Each structure stands twice: as C-alpha cells, then as structure tokens.
C-alpha cells in the first residue's frame, strides 16, 4: 500500500508535465488497480491527480478548452481539491457538437488514428466522439470489471443483443470470454435458436428488447438458455421490464448506467439479501469518470435529483470535462449499504428532455408517476407516459396477449396520477395494440412533447 501511495504521489507531482499518450497506459493500469482495491481514500487521491493532469493537458493542448477556461477566468493552477472542479465551466452537448476537429482534438494527438463515433440518441442531434484505440479498450476493461462484480468469470459465454449491424449469430469463440453478438431485430424464433445453440452464462442488451424476447421463452428453451445473470443498459430499466426478464430467465437482472462518451458511469449494486431483495442504488465507476449532480449548475445534496455532469478521466485525445449528457439522476451517498466505498447514485431517471413541465411551474420526472401503475404491471407488456401538452398527459398501455385490464383498476390509476399532477392537467389512459420504439431502436417509456417554458 505504501508503494502505491508513493507511486500516486509521484504521478501527481509531475502530472502537469506528463505526456498523455505515453503516460495514459500507466494511469489506466493504476486506475483499474485502485478501483479493484476499493479504498475510498485512494480513489479520491487518484481522481485528484488524474483531474489535475487532465486540466493541464486540456489547457495546453486543446484550443476548445483553453478558450473556455480563459473566458471563465479559470487556470489549472487553481485546481487543488475535487471541490475546485466547480470553478471549471460546464460543457454542453451543443458546445461539443459545434467544435471542429482542430478545436476539440489535442494538438499532440494524431487525429488520423482516432476512432470516430456519432451518437444522436433519441434527440436526433448527433454528437461527434473521438477516441484513441487505447482509450476505447481501457473503457471496455472498466466495463469488464463491473461485469466481474456481477459474477462474470473468465470462461463465461456472453451473448450481446445490439442495435448495430453485426452478422446475425456472430460468435467469437475465444478461450477467454467467448461471446455471441446478435442483432436486436432478429425474428424471435431465430433469436431463441441462436441463444439455445450458444448457451450463454450472461446476456446483455436493451431492457425493452430483451423483455419482448423474454415473453417467448419456453420451458424447453430454459433447458439450454440458463444465464447466471442478465445485464441491461442504454435505456431506462423499468420495474416491469425487470420483472419480465427475471421471470423468463430465472436469473437476477443488473442494470448498467452508461453512455457512448464514457462507457460505464455506474453499475447497479449487486448485493442481494438472503431473500433475494435488491440493495438498490448504483456504484459509480470512480476511477474512470468523475460524476457531479447539479441543479442550476450547483451541486445537490444526497437524496436530491439533478442533471448529471461527467468528467472522463481517460479521454485525452478529445477531453470531456464537466460534460452534460442530458440525464437526470438522484445523488446517493459516499459508500453503499453493501460495504462498497464507491460514491453512489440512488436512482437513474432518464433524459432531461423527458421531464414534465407542468402548468403550475413544477418540473417532475414521469418515472414518479409509475407507482400508481403497480397493480397493473402483472398484465402489461409495455407502457409509455407521454406529455402531449403542458396540461395533457396520455398513458399508453399495451397488455399481454390474452390479458384483460380491469376498468376499475384503470380508473383508480388515472385518479391517483391526476392527484399527483394537479387539477390543471388532464390525464387519459389509452389501451393500444403496439407502442413503437424510436427510430434508433431504443424504447422511451417517458416522453415530453413540451418545450421548456411552454407550461408557464
């Protein structure tokens, strides 16, 4: 331990002079080791050292950040503790989107060697991301570490259901972590046949997509499709989807909060009590990303919600510092009830553009409206809560084939939602045959069609 502390001190002392692409490998290895060690004090020292090096690097090599720092009156010399990060200006998606390669990519980086990725999500506004090969692989290694916390073993077979276009049923039959990649829009029978053939120990995918396939899993399928656990990511995991997946696969479901920009941000606490009850909350990947929860650009206390700001500790080719991806979360405490020393998020709600701005000026996340729906969950296949106008909320319900939704229960749900939203909002319930996903394949359980300020 003393040797590691001495090594961290040495890195910190010369952090502002480090060469990012020679030193980043050592930083990454140390970060993985610190995350594995699980000591809060060591994580904090690592974050502080890495942030100081990143801020100097961005100021000296990235014109986008040098200009923004100068305009805000900030210089990296002013950064001494993690609290000093609040001196650094916020970076919004629009800022990154409008920046040219010459502005956003570090001048000491060969831009021709970078991976490039455009991500637009459900907003339709593409954001350009740039990584070195090493940065991409390092972030994937942090994800692997999270999977190991869930119980992944080196010889486990992994099935991944993805939205991009891999060859159907593609298999990488390596000795370590053999994997199968499946396209999310495969016909159900073909999907099940591929899973039966591969016999995965772990299944990963979008919760809405996996839940739809899970409905078709038969007892015969379960003889061969027997994962020890299922992981979901990329969209909100509703309790309805979790229930469907755990019932279908007879395995625990663990949610991962991630984004293209940083890969894993946080992963659901894997702890279960003797009766299988979830501990709740998410462990932050502290040595990969620094997370702030802000309201009006000020940090909120534990137990309150706000917009998340991310600083990727391993993005040096095109840094992301105090970056707002547009998600709403609830801040947790330092340390989890399971004994892990990671900082935590209590809840992940979803996108800021899915927040409901009500006529009385309140801003709420529609996930709060799902509690009255609990009595209906056993007969629902999907639901979607849509704010069509500031004073009009529509709840779309798609029942399981052959199931019947009781009219009295439906009325009670509507009345409870009505009380939560207030008399100035009309709530209507619609039974539908299908609720489509977005054009990019993601499913949004909550949507607002109201521009901010329209309800005032």
Summarize the structure.
With 456 residues, the protein is an alpha/beta fold. The chain has helices spanning 2-13, 20-37, 40-61, 63-72, 93-98, 101-104, 133-150, 188-198, 207-214, 219-222, 239-249, 407-421; strands at 91-92, 115-119, 127-131, 158-162, 170-172, 179-183, 202-205, 229-232, 253-259, 263-268, 282-284, 289-295, 298-299, 305-312, 323-324, 327-334, 343-351, 356-357, 363-364, 380-389, 392-399, 426-431, 446-448. Helices cover 30% and strands 25% of the residues.
Write the layout of secondary structure elements.
Blueprint lengths: L1 H12 L6 H18 L2 H22 L1 H10 L18 E2 H6 L2 H4 L10 E5 L7 E5 L1 H18 L7 E5 L7 E3 L6 E5 L4 H11 L3 E4 L1 H8 L4 H4 L6 E4 L6 H11 L3 E7 L3 E6 L13 E3 L4 E7 L2 E2 L5 E8 L10 E2 L2 E8 L8 E9 L4 E2 L5 E2 L15 E10 L2 E8 L7 H15 L4 E6 L14 E3 L8
Helix pairs in contact: 1-3, 2-3, 2-7, 3-4, 9-11
Give a verbal description of the structure:
There is one protein chain. The N and C termini lie far apart (57 Å). The chain is 30% helix and 25% strand. Among the domains are: 133-351, 3-Layer(aba) Sandwich (Rossmann fold), CATH 3.40.50; 356-448, ANL, C-terminal domain (GMP Synthetase, Chain A, domain 3, 2-Layer Sandwich). It has helices at residues 2-13, 20-37, 40-61, 63-72, 93-98, 101-104, 133-150, 188-198, 207-214, 219-222, 239-249, 407-421; strands at residues 91-92, 115-119, 127-131, 158-162, 170-172, 179-183, 202-205, 229-232, 253-259, 263-268, 282-284, 289-295, 298-299, 305-312, 323-324, 327-334, 343-351, 356-357, 363-364, 380-389, 392-399, 426-431, 446-448. A hairpin with a 2-residue loop joins strand 20 (380-389) and strand 21. The chain is α/β, with parallel strands linked by helices and 456 residues long. Helix 1 (2-13) packs parallel to helix 3 and helix 2 packs parallel to helix 7 (133-150). Strands 5-6-4-7-8-9-10-11-17-16-14-12-13 form a 13-stranded mixed β-sheet, sandwiched between helices. Mean pLDDT is 85; it is low at 4-19 and 452-456. The protein contains twelve helices and 23 strands.
């Amino acid at each position: 331990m003393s040797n590691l502390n001495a090594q961290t001190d040495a890195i910190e002392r010369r952090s502002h002079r480090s060469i990012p692409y020679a030193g980043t490998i050592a930083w990454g290895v140390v970060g993985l080791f610190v995350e594995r060690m699980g000591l809060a004090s060591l994580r904090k020292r690592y974050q502080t050292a890495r942030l100081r090096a990143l801020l100097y690097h961005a100021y000296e090599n990235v014109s986008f950040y040098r200009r923004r720092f100068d305009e805000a009156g900030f210089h990296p010399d002013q950064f001494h503790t993690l609290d000093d990060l609040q001196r650094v200006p916020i970076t919004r998606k629009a800022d990154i989107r409008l920046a040219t390669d010459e502005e956003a990519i570090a001048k000491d980086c060969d831009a021709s060697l970078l991976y490039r990725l455009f991500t637009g999500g459900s907003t339709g506004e593409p954001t350009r991301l740039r990584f070195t090969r090493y940065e991409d692989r390092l972030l994937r290694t942090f994800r692997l570490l999270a999977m190991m916390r869930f119980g992944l073993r080196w010889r486990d077979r992994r099935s991944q259901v993805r939205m991009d276009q891999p060859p159907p049923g593609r298999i990488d039959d390596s000795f370590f972590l053999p994997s199968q990649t499946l396209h999310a829009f495969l016909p159900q029978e073909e999907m099940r046949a591929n899973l039966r053939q591969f016999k995965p120990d772990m299944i990963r995918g979008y919760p809405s997509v996996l839940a739809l396939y899970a409905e078709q899993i038969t007892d015969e399928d379960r003889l061969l499709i027997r994962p020890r656990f299922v992981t979901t990511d990329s969209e909100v995991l509703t309790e309805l989807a979790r229930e469907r997946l755990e019932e279908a696969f007879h395995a625990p479901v663990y949610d991962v909060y991630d984004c293209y920009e940083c890969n894993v941000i946080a992963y659901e606490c894997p702890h279960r009590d003797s009766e299988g009850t979830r501990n709740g909350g998410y462990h932050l990947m502290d040595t990969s990303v620094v997370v702030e929860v802000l309201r009006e650009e000020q940090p909120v206390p534990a137990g309150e919600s706000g917009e998340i700001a991310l600083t990727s500790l391993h993005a040096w080719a095109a840094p992301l510092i105090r970056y707002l991806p547009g998600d709403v979360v609830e801040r947790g405490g330092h340390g989890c009830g399971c004994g892990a020393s990671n900082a935590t998020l209590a809840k992940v709600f979803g996108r800021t553009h899915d927040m409901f701005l009500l006529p009385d000026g309140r801003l709420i996340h529609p996930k709060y409206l799902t509690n009255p729906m609990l009595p209906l969950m056993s007969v629902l296949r999907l639901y979607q809560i849509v704010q069509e106008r500031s004073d009009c909320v529509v709840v779309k319900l798609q029942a399981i084939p052959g199931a019947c939704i009781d009219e009295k229960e439906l009325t009670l749900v509507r009345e409870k939602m009505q009380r939560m939203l207030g008399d100035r909002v009309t709530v209507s319930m619609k039974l539908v045959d299908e609720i489509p996903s977005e054009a990019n394949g993601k499913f949004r359980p909550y949507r607002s069609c109201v521009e901010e300020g329209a309800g005032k």
